[in-house]
Amino acid sequence: MGKRTDSRDRTVAAAERLFRARGVAGTGLREVVDAAGTARGGLGHHFPGGKEELVTEVVQRTGARIAELLGALRDVRPPPAPADVVRAVVGLWREELRRTDYALGCPLAACVVDGAVEHPGVRAAVAAALDSWEEPLAVLLDGAPRTPGRGVAVALLCALEGAVVIARARRDLTPLDDVERVFADVVD
Prior knowledge:
The chain has helices at about 5-20, 30-35, 40-45, 50-75, 80-100, 105-115, 120-140, 150-170, 175-185. By secondary structure, the chain is an all-alpha fold. The protein has a domain at about 60-185: Tetracycline Repressor, domain 2. The radius of gyration is 17 Å and the shape is globular.
């Protein structure tokens, strides 16, 4: 992998926005370059593995960013109540959908829905990102990893991904409200 540059970072950021809005299959590399304001040749320089490498980078960065947010919640002392964790996590999506006028979904979901996970590198990156979200959520929801909190964490992630899809389709936050209410009750 080459040295990180501003053009590389802009390319990844542009690709993330486009993948979140249009999906992986619906986004061409030329569109990414145009949105990033970078030279087409830079794409091959920064991502010699092509679109698969770019998708993998987007997934890794997104995964790390969300894992960092969850890790910060996990490290708060005293720890937040599980219902407050549910409200915080759902609240992040609620604000994101409002901020983007329902335009942007989850890039990991886009990879799965569009079949990009057929590429081993992308599949591994998506799995690693989801694992990095599951562990801190399990701790936050149950107090320890590998306990019933793990199942609740997985169910919450599944419900959130589905709620985001429905909310975007309907342009309505009610599915997120429903997930928040149900899971806040479950963990209390």
